[in-house]
Amino acid sequence: MPTIISKFAKRSFDTLEGLGYSRELVSKGLITGAVALYCLRLTYPVVRDKLTANVGRGSATDPAHNHRNENNNLTKQPPPDDPEAKKEQIIIAKRNRQRQAGRQPGLNIDFLLQLRQLIRIMVPRLLCEESGLLAVHTLCLVSRTFLSIYVASMEGAIVKFIVRKDVRNFVLMLLKWFGIAIPATFINSMIRYLENKLALAFR
Known about the structure:
It holds the Pfam family ABC_membrane_2. By secondary structure, the chain is mostly helical.
């Protein structure tokens, strides 16, 4: 399948070059079109929600407009000076806002306030068991990152010595690799253990 696609692309480029278009120009056009389609895909739901919200707002303010009740039946909207009708409109608007908020979760002030309350519950003081577990867990994560980088460089050196047929350096690097594997395994197990301990402490 990739071969067929590459052949088709080559023929298309050759045809366009015959018409006087360069490959760079065609590539830029394709990339621009793809980016424009992706931006359209991202912005379309937002624009659609805005338009439906404006239409809903217009129908709510129009006294002669029919609307649907909770059973999805069309009913005549009562006069605007009726206090019961105003209460019903407020309740419907509040439900619509809650549904929209449920459909589109995001980072807002309510989320930050709830997160702050949760953190106060999970970590009550600066010097407590939970903060100590968090500090040790962070230290283990940083150590694992440095160990991963060091092991990757060692593996590159091992492959280099294999290609050079340097047996002595290959054996030395292999022994170093086995020496690093022991603390790396311990740190990985420690991270899992600390994650479980933190989950229990937070509960």
